[in-house]
Amino acid sequence: MTVDYDRLDVRPGMRVLDLGCGEGRHTFEAYRRGADVVALDLNAKDLATTAQWCAAMDLAGEAPAAASATTVRGDLLSLPFPDASFDRVIASEVLEHIPDDVTAIAELTRVLKPGGRAAVTVPRWLPERVCWALSDEYHANEGGHVRIYREDELADRLRGAGLTVTGNGFAHALHSPYWWLKCAIGDAAPTRAYHRLLVWDIVDKPAVTRVLEQALNPLIGKSVVLYLQKNDSDLQKHDPDLQKNDSDLQKNDPATHVGS
User: Are 228 and 117 within 8 A, CB to CB?
Assistant: First the structure.
């Protein structure tokens, strides 16, 4: 996963929206943690896969009995939910596909409860810039990436919609060389060999690659993650526990600054 669920503070009973869920990688963890999760995407085939795996989790007892998982086909530019519907919102690797990202961010913010938290991830500028330089096919296709974000630019757009950036992070450094290989030489033997390495890393989680990726994430992490909270001055004023939690997060998180 790209999002750290401990930092997002996903807890049982929360309503969680996974925007652009794809085949459900972030939905599954929210469901496993006891949330009432809604997985939204435009792709009906991906939604069917998400629903199938959530049903399998249910049968295997991998999610608490009180939790729920629902799939919804919908457009991020016009979400089919009332205002302030969700405690947590996840938008992972989505905004770079949407020409009108201002409307998408406004919709994301609209359905988040005041004081609620969100995690937004996009491809990081440097690894993405290398991919674009190596191959037009990487991004110039239907549904492909329409822009490359700088972290500070994305943070400014999210702040403009009424969200406060509470922290940041980087993920998937070991994936960047794979995409550089794929863009440079296509599906050649070195690319396939590196893909096997990534599969081994994902499945077995060996300590050596975990340590290596953590070390490389600040340098070549494929994704940047922004952790956010919806502004509500009245809530902050009357809820000292919320103020304390935010203060503790920033004090304990050395990566709460936002850079380019």
Answer: yes
Categorize the per-residue pLDDT at 19 as very low, low, confident or very high, splitting at 50, 70 and 90.
very high
pLDDT digits (tens, 9 = 90+) for 112-167: 999 999 999 999 999 999 999 999 989 888 888 999 999 999 999 999 999 999 99
The answer to whether residues 35 and 88 touch, using CB atoms and an 8 Å cutoff, is: yes
CA atoms 31, 35, 36, 40: torsion sign: negative
Closest to 260 measured CA to CA, from 152, 127, 147:
152
Q: Are 109 and 19 in contact (CB under 8 A)?
A: no
Rg of the chain over all Cα atoms, to the nearest angstrom: 18
Count of beta carbons in the 10 Å neighbourhood of residue 231: 15
Q: Is the pLDDT reported for residue 36 higher than 80?
A: yes
Is residue 90 within 8 A of residue 16, CB to CB? The reply is yes
pLDDT band at 240 (very low <50, low <70, confident <90, very high): very low
Pairwise CA distance, residues 21 & 37, whole Å: 11
38 contacts 72 by C-beta, under 8 angstroms: yes
Helix axes 25-32, 44-59, angle to 10 degrees: 30
CA geometry: angle 77, 52, 6, nearest 5 deg: 65
Q: What is the pLDDT of residue 32?
A: 97
Of the chain, the percentage scoring pLDDT greater than 70 comes to 89
Q: Please check whether residue 148 is in contact with residue 120, taking contact to mean a CB–CB distance below 8 angstroms.
A: no
Instruction: Outline where the chain has alpha helix (H).
Output: 5-8, 25-32, 44-59, 101-111, 125-134, 151-160, 175-185, 189-204, 207-220, 233-238, 240-252
